[in-house]
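Researcher: I've been going back and forth with a colleague about how Sulfotransferase might be arranged in three dimensions. Neither of us has a model we trust, so I'd like an independent prediction. The organism is Galemys pyrenaicus, in case that matters for your notes. Sequence below.
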Amino acid sequence: MLIRYFHPPTTDDGHLRCCEHSRVGMRKDLMPRTLDGQITMEKTPSYFVTREAPARISAMSKDTKLIVVVRDPVTRAISDYTQTLSKRPDIPTFESLTFKNRTTGLIDTSWSAIQIGIYAKHLEHWLRHFPLGQMLFVSGERLISDPAGELGRVQDFLGLKRIITDKHFYFNKTKGFPCLKKAEGSSKPHCLGKTKGRTHPEIDREVVQRLREFYRPFNLKFYQMTGHDFGWD
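Model: Here is an independent structure prediction for Sulfotransferase. You can compare it with whatever you and your colleague have in mind.
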């Protein structure tokens, strides 16, 4: 079984250009041909939270298997902010962006860093077009603590023999992430790039607690919808 990874042309905001077109045929033309015995994989982070994506992908191929990596939405929001802060040091504080009204504790769900983590809301759109059995939800936390185990689930989901095991990884204490001992086609180890593993800013504990309270019902609904408890509460 040969896996071919396809990185498509994207717009500045990370959307796959093929999903900007109105005709399904134009989207298919951008995908490489897949022969018998091959799996073609394509990654666009914004798919899961783009309202139009489920219908468009379903129109292109109803048999598509979908893999979604999720992590604690509070940690994800802080990580999102940290990424933006590295590019725009003059942005407001995380605390000020989190609330519409801090006095009342009203969360600003229009801020993308917050909105993306409401996974149950996004999943509802996908379930209108794809059965749950065609989706695999990968734990971002377990990708760090047990990369081989989580990738074992991915290999099973794709109908592949479990080739990737613990022996392929080592933990990089500096980055705080596991690394591949030897990348394909290279004699050197491969770790995540410099944009990953940044130190997060110190966030007010009360703000973090308020966010946990905000996300809790959405997390519980997401657990019920997927049949998997990710342990974020």
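Researcher: What would you highlight for our discussion?
Model: I'd start with this: The chain has a mean pLDDT of 86. After that, consider the following. The first strand starts at residue 2 and ends at 6.
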